[in-house]
TrEMBL record:
The lineage of its organism: Bacteria, Pseudomonadati, Bacteroidota, Flavobacteriia, Flavobacteriales. Residues 3-147 form the Glycosyltransferase 2-like domain. CDD domains: Glyco_tranf_GTA_type. It holds the Pfam family Glycos_transf_2. This is Glycosyltransferase 2-like domain-containing protein.
Length: 298
């Protein structure tokens, strides 16, 4: 009935698998859970994750070479044996004890070929040096169901989504997106262009892993490199994201190099704010636009 697929990298995924396994067993459904580590260093997490193999219908695999984020997911999909695939990020955990049951019920009540349950964050503020990820997540990723329903494609993430396996096979993740960033948007835009509707329900998972702000900021450098790649190759169009729409406006006005120059001058001030205990998302947006202009001016 359901294949639960979890890509991971150097993360203790056992608690998530144990919870999903407990719920799936209680529903007496046919299921499998496959966790694929993308060749992270062998350490205590590898040993812990190996215990997944002791659970019925569950297995943990570790790639010998790093496939990248897109290809790791595609590899998991190709191994799935059931018609519906639940994609979960390794650093999530279901909010409710009837998480699996709710998804099963949604298959009876929804005609869509993809169903997104939502992502939420704990209300307690994290450590001061982890604030940027939490503020971004609470503001940009934790979206009420009513708002998600108003613009289903815009408010979908792939960290907690149930999709027909056939859809994932015919619309695979882009293998060229190796590192963090924009693989979800590329996939979702592909569904949008093919008019494959996405249903939204109230069935959230908590996002748990709050990186230090400096690491999160560095990961966004990688994501913007990905954005440049997919924009240059016409995989996405300028109107597909707010950032690229703004970038194209600057390009038409011949202001990209000026924006890049300004970013270089003010980068340290932006960074000081973003690594503080009160990061501004407005400054974060300015930072991202400036960095994107900079990498397009090389």
């Amino acid at each position: 009935m359901i294949s639960i697929l979890i890509p991971t990298y150097n993360y203790n995924t056992l608690p998530l698998v144990e919870e999903l396994h407990r719920q799936a067993v209680s529903e007496s459904i046919e299921f499998e859970i496959i966790v694929a580590d993308d060749a992270s260093p062998i350490n205590e997490n590898t040993e812990i994750n190996s215990k997944i193999n002791q659970l019925s219908n569950c297995r943990f695999e570790r790639h010998k070479t790093n496939l990248g984020r897109g290809q790791n997911r595609n590899s998991l999909v190709q191994k799935a044996k059931y018609d519906w695939v639940l994609l979960m990020d390794c650093d999530t955990i279901p909010k409710e004890k009837d998480f699996i049951k709710t998804y099963i019920e949604s298959l009876k009540n929804n005609k869509e070929r993809a169903i997104f349950g939502g992502i939420i964050y704990y209300n307690e503020k994290p450590k001061p040096d982890e604030m940027l990820r939490w503020v971004f997540g609470k503001s940009r990723e934790e979206t009420p169901l009513s708002r998600r329903l108003s613009n289903p494609f815009h408010y979908t993430l792939i960290s907690n989504i149930l999709v027909q396996k056939e859809v994932l096979l015919s619309h695979p993740f882009d293998n060229e997106i190796f590192n963090y960033g924009y693989e979800d948007i590329v996939f979702i835009l592909g569904l949008k262009r093919e008019q494959i509707a996405i249903g939204h329900i109230e069935n959230p998972a908590y996002h748990l892993n709050l990186e230090k702000s400096a690491i999160f900021l560095e990961k966004f450098h990688s994501s913007l490199e990905n954005l440049k790649l997919v924009l240059d190759k016409n995989i996405i169009h300028p109107e597909d994201t707010t950032l690229t729409k703004t970038y194209i406006k600057l390009k038409r006005l011949h202001l990209v190099k000026i924006a890049a120059f300004g970013f270089g001058i003010f980068k340290s001030l932006y960074t000081k704010n973003l690594l503080s205990k009160n990061p501004s998302l407005f400054i974060f947006d300015v930072y991202r636009l400036g960095y994107f202009c900079q990498i397009n001016s090389r």
